[in-house]
Amino acid sequence: MLTALDRKHTIAPEGYSRWLIPPAALAVHLCIGQAYATSVYKNSFIKHFDASQTSIGIIFSIAIVMLGLSAAVAGTWVEANGPRKAMFVSACFWASGFLVSALGIGTEQLWLVYLGYGVIGGIGLGIGYISPVSTLIKWFPDRPGLATGLAIMGFGGGALIASPASRQLLSAYDENYDPNVATSVADGHALVLLFLTLGIAYFLIMMFGVANIRVPAPGWRPAGWEPSSVTAKPLVTAASVSAASAIRTRSFWLLWVVLFCNVTAGIGILEQASPMIQDFFRVDGVSSVSVAAAGGFVGVLSLFNMAGRFAWSSTSDHVGRRPIYMLYLGAGMVMYLLLATVGDAATALFVVLAGIILSFYGGGFATVPAYLRDLFGTYQVGAIHGRLLTAWSAAGIAGPLIINRFLDAQGKPGSLTSAAYQPALFTMVGVLAIGFVANLLIRPVPERFHEPSGTTTPLEKEAAA
User: Fold this and answer.
1) Are 436 and 257 a contacting pair, CB within 8 Å?
2) First vs last C-alpha separation in the chain
3) Spatial contact of 275 and 407, defined as CB atoms under 8 Å apart
4) What is the DSSP string of 265-280?
5) pLDDT at 272
6) Widest CA span in the chain
7) Is 385 within 8 Å of 134 (Cβ atoms)?
8) CB neighbours (10 Å) of residue 395?
9) Residue 215: what are its φ and ψ, rounded to 5°?
10) Residue 213, exposed/middle/buried by CB under 10 A (0-12, 13-18, 19+)?
11) Is residue 107 packed enough to be buried (19+ CB in 10 Å), middle (13-18) or exposed (0-12)?
C-alpha cells in the first residue's frame, strides 16, 4: 500500500481538475493550524503539571522553532519525493506528537510534552506546511497568490475550529470543566483523552489530503494561459534556481528580512492579544473589557488573520508581490503608530487597528511562496520556501520577547495601561521600517544562479522515463 505514496503515482491523469488540489492542501493546513489554539488548555496544563506560564509556553515556542528548522532541512527531500509522501510523513509526525504528549500528560512528565508536541509535532508542522506549496504553484501558474492563499488560509483558520472543538471535548471528558468560563481548568484524564482524540482525528483528516493530492503532468498548463503574460511582470522570472543557489543570492536574504520583520510585528500582538485589550482600557486598576470579551477579541483576530491570507495574497496576483509587501510593511507602520497613540480612544478603533495588522501578518505568510516563485521559478520553490521559514522561527522568539521585555519593565500583569505598551509598539514601527527598506532593495536574481535550460525535477524525470 505504501507504494501509492511514490512519486510516479502522484501524476494527475488527463482531465484532472486542479480545483481538487486546494481542498487537499487545506485538509493538512487546517489540522496543523491547531498550533494557534494551544491557549485553550494552557491553564489546565499549568495546574496539572504545577508549572509556570513560561514552562508551558515553551511548548509552543519549541513547535514553532522546529517548524522552521524541519521545513529548512526537509525542503529538498519534499521536492524530491513529491507532496503525497511528504504529507503522509507530516501526518505521522503530527499525530505521533499528540500521542507522545498524551503519555506525558498521563505520567505527569512535562519533558514528554516538549518532545511530543514540541519536537515531533513541530517536525510534522514544518513538513506539512511546505508540502503542498510548490504543487499548488505548479497547478496555478496563472494565479499563484490565490492558490497558496487558499491553503495557507487554513493554517490561520485552524484555531477557529480547534479552539471550540477542544473546549467541547474537554467538557465531555470532564464534567467539572465549563467551556464558557475562561478560568475553568480540566483534569489530567480529560487532557489525555483530548490529545488522543485530536491525534487520531487529525491523522484521518490529513489522509484525505494525502489521497487527493496530485502533481500536474510535465508540460501541463491551464487552458488559454501563456507564460509570457506572467514573466512580463517586474521581478518575475521564467528561469529555474535551485535551493542551494537561492540561499547564495542577496534577494533571498532580503526577503528573509522582510518575512522576519512582518512576522515579528504581527506575532507580538497575537501572543499578547487577550491581556492587551484589557490593559488598553483599564482605569484605576479596573478594565472595562471583560475576560469573555477579550477571548472574543482573540477570535476576531483569527478571522482577520485568516481573511488576510486569502484576500491580500489574491490581490498580489494583480498588483505584484513587492507592492503588496509595501502595503503590509508601510501601512503596518501607520497602524502601529495609531495603535500606540490613539488606540485607547475607543474599543472599536483598537479592534480595527489590531485586525488590520493581523491581516497583514497573515497575508505575508500566504504571499511569500508566490514571491519566491516570481524570483526563483518553480524548480525547487518548496525547498526554498522551507529555508525561508527559518525567519518565522526567529520571529517567533523575537516578537514575544520584544513585547514581554518592555512590559516587564513597565509593571506587573493586571496593572498595566495603554501607556505601558507604547515603547514596544514604537519598536515594532522600527522593525517594520527595516522590512520596508529590505523589500525595496529586492532585485531579479542574476543569471549566474540560474539552472541550465531544460533542467527538470526528479518527479518530471521519472514521469518522462
Assistant:
1) no
2) 23
3) no
4) HHHHHHHHHHHHHHHH
5) 76
6) 75
7) yes
8) 24
9) -115, 150
10) buried
11) exposed
- For the cut 50, the answer to whether the pLDDT of residue 392 exceeds it is yes
pLDDT at 178 over 90: no
Model confidence pLDDT, tens digit, residues 294-327: 777 877 888 898 899 999 999 999 999 999 999 9
- Residue whose cell numbers read 471550540: 164
DSSP states along 294-336 = HHHHHHHHHHHHHHHHHHHHHHHHHH-HHHHHHIIIIIHHHHH
Place of cell 512582518: 262
Distance between CA atoms of residues 443 and 158, nearest Å: 35
Dihedral (Cα; 100, 103, 105, 108), 10-degree rounding: -120
> Pick from 210, 193, 242: which is nearest to 26 by CA?
210
Looking at residue 142, what is its pLDDT? 86
Decide the pairing of beta strands 286-287 and 282-283: antiparallel
Is the pLDDT reported for residue 137 higher than 80? yes
Over the chain, what is the mean pLDDT?
88
* Amino acid code (one letter) for 446: P
Q: Which residue in 178, 184, 206, 12 sits closest to 92, CA to CA? A: 206
Pick the closest to residue 463 from 220, 242, 240, 136 (CA basis).
Answer: 220
What CA–CA distance (Å, rounded) separates 385 from 281?
Answer: 40
| Predicted TM-score of the model (pTM) | 0.85
Strand partners, 287: 282
pLDDT at 223: 84
Instruction: Tell me which H or E stretch contains 283.
Output: strand 282-283
3-state helix, strand, coil in the chain (%, to 5): 75, 0, 20
Q: Label residues 284-303 b or e (16+ Cβ within 10 Å = b).
A: eeebebeeeebbebbebbbb
SS3 label, residue 282: strand
Distances (CA, A) of 264 to 115, 141, 317, 424: 25, 30, 25, 12
What is the per-residue pLDDT across 359-383, written as a single tens digit (0 to 9) for each?
999 999 999 999 999 999 988 888 9
Q: Is the pLDDT of residue 395 over 70?
A: yes
- Nearest-CA neighbor of 375 among 264, 230, 260? 230
Q: Given a cut of 70, is residue 464 above it in pLDDT?
A: no
Cell of 302: 483569527
Distance CA 45, CA 195 (A): 12
74: how many CB neighbours lie within 10 A of its CB? 22
Which three three-digit cell numbers place residue 344?
A: 485607547
Name the helix (H) or strand (E) containing 135. helix 133-139
Residue whose C-alpha cell is 470532564: 174
